[in-house]
Amino acid sequence: MNCEILHWSYRDFRLIPEELRSFGAQVLEVYLKENFIPSIPQWFFEQMTHLRFLSLAGNLLVDIPEQISLLIHLEVLDLSQNSISLLPNTIGCLHNLTTLRINENKLTHLPQEIEKLNKLEILDASNNCLLEIPIELGLCKTLREITLNDNYHLIRIPTKIFTMPPLVFLSAERCNLLSLPFAANSTSLEIVRVFKNHSLTHYPLVLEKFMQPNYDILNAVELKRLTISRTSELTTVLDRRRSGQIPNSLNEICLRSCNGYAKINCSLCLLRPFLPADMWLRLRQGPVAICGSPPCSKTIFSECFLGLVKRRNHARPVGFTILFCSKLCADLWFQYNCDVYEELYWVAI
After folding, report:
1. How far apart are CA 120 and CA 310, in angstroms?
2. Residue 180 to residues 168, 203, 303, Cα–Cα distance (Å)
3. Which of 96, 154, 155, 174 is the most core-located residue (most Cβ within 10 A)?
4. What's the pLDDT tens digit per position in 205-222?
């Protein structure tokens, strides 16, 4: 018998068996899937600190004790298919965790301390009741795969999630997303799946390359006039055909300068003592987009010109949006891309 791995799934256990204690530090992986375990006892955390893999999927768990922080060597944690409504903040102490599966539970929030999971690569939080995704998740420097499918109450994903340097795969199908981020990491990101979000009326043009193989299942739009919902990030959204205003307030210019300074010095924290709280928060969230006109590389935080387009060679009316830092950039982009894209009318609410 291999004492390093215990397969105790499908045993109809009503409790975590105390026989585990007799194995001591020999056992590194424990599978307790599909039993009837309602809770994790204190002794388990105190005596199983050497564990690297733990699966408690398909049990009757309703909460996770704070003492889970004692499992400091844990690399894979599977808590899927339970009835967990809250994760403890101490889960951020699992610094060796690479895979966290919490799908098919009753979670409404993820703890902010998730940013402390320095080695996390895979997160599956699908089939929950998530209301929001914490901006702190975007600070996980090793996260490669995020699955958020079937969170019907989820209406928005922070831009910072889409721009994470290592992110390769992101799926948020069958949620209730009202809008998508206008920026994405074009270097690492390979797969984005946001289909069957029926409240979406348009898609950011930066994400079009991920949509092209599946044009037929994207939401079609009414071409006469589209309604664009303002996000909490964008306070000023202008139409190049109806406004000559330049969206470059002092606040926007300051945000761009601070963001540039932070990139050069590789640290945003240096600026915190000198900035108002609301400006610091916006910088921490990161820019909403980069100007869509290729010669320009200005960041956009809260003010922009917005263009709404559809591809001329596609019969299906799928709307795409693109942001610009100025009317000049918007005019130049439409001048060079008028053969490929047709401009649509829109109104903001």
Report:
1. 38
2. 17, 7, 17
3. 154
4. 998 888 765 655 555 555
Q: Which residue has the tokens 């089939």?
A: 127
Q: Are 189 and 208 in contact (CB under 8 A)?
A: no
Q: Where are the alpha helices (DSSP H) in 157-202?
A: 159-162
Inter-residue contact 158 to 130 (CB < 8 Å): no
Q: Which residue has the tokens 């921490």?
A: 284
Task: Sort 103 into a burial class: Cβ within 10 Å, 0-12 / 13-18 / 19+.
Answer: buried
Question: In this predicted structure, what is the pLDDT of residue 7?
Answer: 93
Q: Which amino acid is at 132?
A: E
Give the pLDDT confidence score for residue 121 in this predicted structure. 97
CA distance 39 to 56: 10
User: How many residues are recorded in the chain?
Assistant: 349
Phi-psi region of 196 (alpha: psi -120 to 50; beta: other; left: phi over 0): left
Prediction pTM value:
0.89
Could you tell me the pLDDT band of residue 281, with boundaries at 50, 70 and 90?
A: confident
Rounded to 5 degrees, what angle do the CA atoms 203, 207, 211 make?
A: 80
Asked if 306 and 312 count as a contact pair (C-beta separation under 8 A), the reply is no
3-state secondary structure of 304: strand
How far is 108 from 33, CA to CA, in rounded Å? 23
Residue 294 has, within 13 A of its CA and on its CB side, a CA count of: 4
294 phi-psi bin (left φ>0, alpha ψ -120 to 50, beta other): alpha
How far is Cα 154 from Cα 10, in angstroms, rounded to an integer? 33
CA atoms of 310 and 203, how far apart (whole Å): 10
Convert the pLDDT of each residue in 82-91 to its tens digit: 999 999 999 9
Q: What is the DSSP letter of 229?
A: P
Residue 198, judged by CB atoms within 10 A of its CB (0-12, 13-18, 19+), counts as exposed
| DSSP summary character for residue 163 | T
**How far is Cα of residue 338 from the mean position of the Cα atoms in its chain?**
33
Order of all β-strands in the sheet with 5-7: 5-7, 29-31, 53-55, 76-78, 99-101, 122-124, 145-147, 169-171, 191-193
